[in-house]
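The data layer described in this paper is built around a simple, fixed record for each protein. Such a record has a labelled line for the sequence and another for the backbone structure tokens. For reference, a complete record is included directly beneath this paragraph.
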Amino acid sequence: MAATPGDRQALSRAEIADQLRRLGVAPGGVLLAHVSYRAARPVSGGPAGLIAALRTALGPDGTLVMPSWTGCDDRPFDPAATAAAADLGVTADTFWRQPGVARATHPFAFAAAGPHADEILRDPLPLPPHIPQSPVGRVHDLDGQVLLIGAGHDANTTLHLAEWMAGVPYRVTRHITIAGAQGPERIDYLEVDHCCARFALTDDWLRREGRQPEGKVGHAPARLIRARDVVRVAMGKLAANPLIFLHPAEAGCTECDEARASLAM
């Protein structure tokens, strides 16, 4: 029987930093982390302790980046007060609130701390949210790494960057609300979107090339990949089959069916 979180020993910041170094986190580098604290726990100091371990592994010259967007499309985003979307997890919501952490001012926000934070967050509202002129695109430009802790590639936003750069033919209608000059303003836009479950195919593609070191961070399985490797490998597959990330029509996936229906528009 697998151990439950209550049976596990809380790992210290130093222990987790050692795990991260063994995995290949580059001191002084740029690291985009997608974290499930539920999978990694218990950690000494809780989510803040896990963040401290990430920053320790990166060192003072490293830059840590986490997603920090809102979960609400119908209320204006306040970067100083709006909580991160619930599905991003407690670590992401803890990170943007810490002293010295910068947060983008638009609803597709990321948060960052370190020497490259301003460069990563400098762009205005990106539409759709994962174009090259976005935090994900800037991490790619800086040859950053992507770390998945207790999460799979379905959480890997860099794959949406790859879809955009590959020119996939599907777009679905989405909207957000911003604080306009006359009050709340709704913006409709077209996004490269679907259920993301088939992003899991990326595991095998990267493993075959030896481009995805895997291990434990805290008590969670973890993957570490260069953002440029994610984009390069995915773009190669998308060039051969632009719909490879969509479930086939007979699978009955509502979100992928919506994306597929956009091909006829």
User: Anything to note?
Assistant: The radius of gyration is 18 Å. The first helix runs from residue 13 to 23.
